[in-house]
Amino acid sequence: MSSSENSKNETGYYFNNTKPIEIFEYPDQASKLIWGVNRNNILQISSQIIEFIKTHKLSIQIPLYLIDAFSRIRVKDLKLFSELYQKILKEFSCIIEPENDKLTTLLHYKGFKFENFIPEWGEKQILNLYSPKSPLYYIAWDKVDALKSKSPKLKINERIGWIFTPLDCAIRYGSELCFNYLKNLGAEYTDYSEKYAVQGGNKNIFMQMIEEGKSFDDMINTALDY
User: Fold this and answer.
1) Is residue 39 domain-shared with residue 97, that is, in the same domain?
2) Domain carrying residue 26
């Protein structure tokens, strides 16, 4: 094995000319870029990430891992993350399967065939999150007017389909308009609300919950997971 091979780890990251601080600097930059991706900047961010990989500042596994992880948090942006993941795979002509089965499914429908993978959901089913016949669909997508018109007799403190109460659904998906609407109707928090707030990541919802006495004392491990 040559010296250059010895200085290269199994994921393709070259350390021989890398300052110690840079080992952490570029993954941190990549994390911020990927977390901040949106429809307007996806081309710019994908180009930056690809350049980091080509110049050996990052192994390809690092941004793919970050995209995979973030796609489980920002579930409403799953399609966007799948597009970013695709761009990296196509650029380097490789097939690396993510852990998130729903992300894998979207990639499968775009032509990436992963070994022994059989999708359990249709593409539309994944992207909708819930059936348009369910109030959860309108809450998750923060369609408060549609929720009011289609579910005028919504039982605000009962679980829908044994999944969420309406308020917990709004908290989980960061649906601020529906959150405020449901709170005004008298919806109550559950034992799971703090966990969903950490997952949902809506700062305004989070701060209102703190103002109303939610302490989040037991949420350190949940926050670290996300």
Assistant:
1) yes
2) 22-125
